[in-house]
Amino acid sequence: MSESKITEKALAFSLKQLMKTAPLSKISIQNIMDNCGLNRQTFYYHFKDKFDLVNWIYNTEVTQCIANCKHYENWTDGMQRTLRYLMENNSFYINALNTPGQNAFDGYFFDFSWELIMGVVKDLSLGMNVPDVDKKFIVDFYTYAFVGIIVQWIKTGMKDSPQIMVDKIEKVVYGSMLGALSRY
Question: Among 20, 144, 162, which Cα is nearest to 85's?
Answer without folding.
Answer: 162
